[in-house]
Specification:
The structure is a homodimer. By secondary structure, the first copy, chain A, is mainly β. Chain A has one domain: Acyl-CoA thioesterase, double hotdog domain (Porin, Beta Barrel), CATH 2.40.160.210. Helix content of chain A is about 15%, strand content about 40%. Chain A has a twelve-stranded antiparallel β-sheet, with helices on one face. In chain A, helix 2 runs antiparallel to helix 3. The longest helix of chain A is centred in the N-terminal third of the chain and has 13 residues. In chain A, about 50% of the residues are buried.
Chain lengths: ~270, ~270
């Protein structure tokens, strides 16, 4: 049995006291450094692997301080406060630069919680869209490797075919799933939360340099609910709310194929010009 | 000239190397501990007061690990990565408990940035609502002090008059401003981002224990744009997207009286039952 490329990419070696070592994976390479989603998943994996973990991920914030360099890194995941039913985590990813100095490339925080049965309701029902089997796959040749790690079927707001400055909206909806297929879990969902191409490309139909500065995921589904998703499709919806002075925000929702809201996720993104 | 009660509440004494001391203010007291917004503003103030600060706040995440006890606290705000135009901050607020141990009560992170002129557009225009002068003030007697620090004029989705379980939506819109009047600034906006009562109260028309676990603010307006707001009103809009297993999310937008989107802000909130 071979290990899924995602498992390889987020693999960590524990060196004690919440410290880990790992290495970037060429399978999830982006333009510069790895796909942000795989970095988010790796950082969360440091929490998931920690022997003191209480409960399941509830929220995750990842700040991208600098491009993660290809190669090895050190990760620290520390439980700084453990309550009866919630636990607060502080994480950081560091790399040693050419001059031998250790640099912080990612800071992050998470809350994990022992979740319980309560009154529940989804106020964001899944939009009415064609089933994934009825939607054509995204086939544009990609210049970056990580795109090939997701099978994508854009329903609305696909990446522009022509970069002619004609954009008018920032809403995208697409079906997607890990490629090759992989059962959905918390780290997999954290990675999927970053799957959307930069909203500024769609809004302007103009390709400019862009990169996530900070992202947050609020997990509505827990381990058991994700296990029910199996190899199913995820429906993602993302849009921007404001573009201003070199940054824009993105607000997004991810639903399971059966229509359960899995997470809400937000980010602020740098763009050039 | 007397100091505004907000300035007193977020005041810090620098003790060197990004360390500060401060104390909670009874003027912003909530049920247990201070209003979350004043804590967020205080933590951001540690960044604003730091001599190494580069640029202006772009994003802020505050994790509420435990109720802040009334009294003194220590705040640490450290710039962990300084780039050409962005700077990454890690903050924490600690208090000494009855047994003499120092406990983490808040963790936080922020990104500050030197912002520049670029193509800009707001994709979330201010909803059409009556002017603040045409809306009746919120006059329900409040059991907590911090509510009196904001003049509130609910347009839609006010706090229920009757707790009869009849709720059907989670959308609130209201005009509000600091009371007494205070020119809007970055810390003031961070505090305003937490002004909404728990969405679960509205959605269920049922009052249950609830408290913010983690909140994030993406600042679209900078120092200069906030200065233009002066003593003007803010329009806030908040809604939930999912309530599940003891937690719900809230997504919110704040506009200036003249219709500029000032920030988008999100939180995940604990609720009982």
């Amino acid at each position: 049995m071979s290990t899924h490329v995602f498992e390889q990419a987020i693999a960590l070696t524990a060196t004690g006291d919440g410290a880990y070592t790992g290495a970037t994976s060429p399978a999830y390479a982006n333009m510069i450094g790895p796909y942000g989603g795989i970095t988010a998943a790796t950082v969360l994996n440091g929490v998931m692997q920690h022997p003191a973990l209480l409960g399941e991920p509830l929220s995750l914030t990842v700040n991208f301080c600098a491009a993660v360099a290809d190669g090895t890194f050190e990760l620290s995941a520390q439980p700084v406060r453990t309550n009866r039913s919630t636990q607060h985590w502080v994480m950081s990813l560091t790399q040693t630069d050419a001059s031998g100095e250790r640099q912080t490339v990612v800071t992050a925080s998470a809350v994990t919680a022992a979740r319980r049965d309560t009154w529940s309701v989804d106020d964001e029902p899944m939009p009415e869209v064609p089933a994934p089997q009825e939607v054509s796959p995204y086939t544009v040749p990609s210049p970056v490797e990580w795109i090939r790690r997701y099978e994508m079927r854009p329903v609305e707001g696909a990446i522009p075919d022509e970069w002619d400055g004609s954009g008018s909206g920032s809403l995208s909806r697409l079906w997607f799933r890990d490629a090759p297929a992989r059962p959905l879990d918390m780290c997999g969902l954290a990675a999927q939360a970053d799957v959307f191409f930069p909203r500024v490309w769609l809004r302007r139909a103009t390709r400019v340099a862009a990169g996530t500065v900070s992202m947050t995921v609020y997990f509505h589904a827990g381990v058991a609910q994700l296990a029910e998703c199996g190899h199913g499709w995820t429906l993602g919806q993302a849009r921007a709310q404001a573009f201003r002075n070199g940054f824009f925000d993105q607000t997004a929702l991810l639903w399971s194929e059966s229509g359960h809201l899995l997470c809400s996720t937000h980010q602020v993104v740098y763009f050039k010009e």
